[in-house]
């Protein structure tokens, strides 16, 4: 099968990050699965880095319009599934409504996997604006009983990027925050709040903190996509088309509105 990996970052500016994504995708993909990496269009992040952009609802909304174009392009080019590889899952449900191939959200996949391996999960983010959004997604996904606190790491995007060369400061701070959540909040699973942190921690060998599992977001998203592609092939499983949230507009109407609103 062929999968489209979509990042929120402008990847031409982050070669070390792209190399880490490629390395991990090749490790976790099943035999016969190929995964192509795509980022945001050149110029998407000029005055502000992705770790800042994603903290503002309007900016994230504008960027997310690219995802809708990309998911349609992926289906037209014969991809079997689309991986929305950013924990906030921007426009996930809308993207699922406009194509027939599976659109797999990383946040959704991480949270439901966490619910499978523990009784209360927490999240640690390096973007201080994210906790309200993650808590809202936990409620939207029906996981209030299992979703615990969302804490800021105390470090930021540039610190985590530096962690690919020297992981120790990030690992030590992440471990400190998780241990506090274990002791004070009773979590027994933890989800890193952004893909760069997932990759950096995995490369550093951080899979558990005091027997508490650390979810590997890229791995669970790939495996969720492979499963949904397989289920579509073997039993015809697809999203429903009955109601407002998943009703699929025609391609013609989609293109008309893109032209009317002057969207590229």
Please describe what this structure looks like:
The chain is α/β, with parallel strands linked by helices and 264 residues long. The chain is 49% helix and 14% strand. The chain contains eleven helices and nine strands. The chain has helices spanning 15-28, 50-53, 57-76, 92-98, 106-117, 131-140, 157-162, 168-185, 195-203, 217-235, 251-260, and strands spanning 2-6, 34-38, 81-84, 103-105, 121-125, 147-152, 189-192, 208-209, 212-213. The protein has a four-stranded parallel β-sheet, sandwiched between helices. Strands 6-5-7 form a three-stranded parallel β-sheet, with helices on both faces. Helix 1 links the parallel strand 1 and strand 2 (34-38). Helix 5 (106-117) crosses helix 10.
| Proper CATH architecture of the largest domain | 3-Layer(aba) Sandwich
Just give the CATH class of the largest domain.
Answer: Alpha Beta
| H/I helix tally | 11
Please indicate the count of domains: 2
In which range does the helix fraction lie? Answer: 40-55%
Categorize the overall geometry: globular
Radius of gyration: 18 Å
Strand content: 5-15%
- Report how far apart the termini are: 29 Å
Give the oligomeric state: single chain
Give the averaged pLDDT, no decimals. Answer: 92
CATH topology of the largest domain: Rossmann fold
Major β-sheet annotation = 4 strands, parallel
The tally of strands reads 9
Strand order of the largest sheet: 2-1-3-4
Low-confidence sequence ranges: none
Could you give a short description of this structure?
The chain has 264 residues and is of the alpha/beta class.
């Amino acid at each position: 099968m062929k999968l489209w990996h979509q990042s929120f970052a402008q990847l031409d500016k982050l070669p070390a990050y792209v190399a880490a994504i490629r390395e991990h995708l090749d490790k976790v993909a099943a035999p016969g699965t190929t995964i192509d990496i795509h980022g945001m269009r050149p110029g998407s992040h000029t005055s502000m880095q992705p770790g800042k952009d994603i903290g503002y609802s309007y900016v994230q909304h504008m960027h997310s319009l690219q995802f809708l174009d990309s998911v349609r392009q992926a289906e037209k080019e014969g991809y079997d599934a689309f991986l929305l590889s950013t924990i906030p899952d921007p426009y996930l449900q809308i993207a699922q409504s406009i194509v027939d191939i599976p659109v797999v959200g990383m946040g959704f996949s991480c949270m439901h996997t966490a619910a499978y391996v523990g009784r209360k999960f927490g999240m640690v983010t390096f973007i201080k604006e994210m906790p309200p959004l993650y808590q809202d997604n936990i409620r939207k996904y029906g996981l209030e009983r299992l979703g615990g606190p969302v804490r800021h790491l105390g470090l930021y995007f540039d610190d985590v990027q530096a962690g690919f060369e020297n992981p120790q400061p990030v690992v030590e701070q992440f471990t400190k925050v998780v241990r506090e959540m274990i002791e004070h909040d009773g979590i027994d699973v933890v989800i890193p709040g952004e893909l760069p942190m997932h990759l950096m921690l995995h490369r550093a060998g951080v899979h558990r903190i005091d027997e508490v599992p650390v979810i590997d977001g890229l791995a669970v998203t790939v495996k969720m996509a492979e499963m949904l592609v397989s289920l579509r092939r073997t039993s015809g499983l697809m999203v429903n088309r009955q109601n407002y949230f998943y009703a699929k507009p025609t391609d013609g109407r989609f293109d008309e509105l893109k032209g009317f609103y002057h969207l590229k």
